[in-house]
Amino acid sequence: MLLLSMAMYVDLVKEMIKFHDIAMAGTKSRNGYDAFHIAAKQGNLVVLKVLMDAIPELSRSCDSLNNMVLHTAALQGHIEVVNFLLEKGSSDSVVAIAKSNAKTALYSAARNGHVEILKSLFEYRAWNHDEELPSYFFPIF
């Protein structure tokens, strides 16, 4: 089922979902990636949408390094995936969740120079504080 997210053809993914136990999409590889993480890492928005419709709770899963799907997409620079996850209902708490090392998706995007993702996350207020911007952060755009 992990190969499901690597499929280039969304029709194939849809057919596989019909004929397989959908819970299998949540099965993780050794690195903790499930089908949703792989689609996010590859920037495969079409497959991600199909999986989100079938199993929306996968958007909250973590890999072995405690990366949520939003972290994975932000780290890889996939702006369309990040925007989709933000629009599709990743709650404020999911956006602000930090990995075990206290790094958020905002941090990952900044560290890797993904300015468009920074803009999207900034507009969504994706930092760990309720009202204030972190003291180390200043707008660069």
Automatic annotation (TrEMBL):
It comes from the Eukaryota. The keyword Repeat applies. Coiled coil: none annotated. The keyword Repeat applies. ANK repeats lie at residues 65-91. Keywords: ANK repeat, Repeat. Pfam families: Ank, Ank_2. InterPro entries: Ankyrin_rpt, Ankyrin_rpt-contain_sf. GO terms for cellular component: plasma membrane. SMART domains: ANK. This is Uncharacterized protein. It comes from Acer yangbiense. The lineage of its organism: Eukaryota, Viridiplantae, Streptophyta, Embryophyta, Tracheophyta.
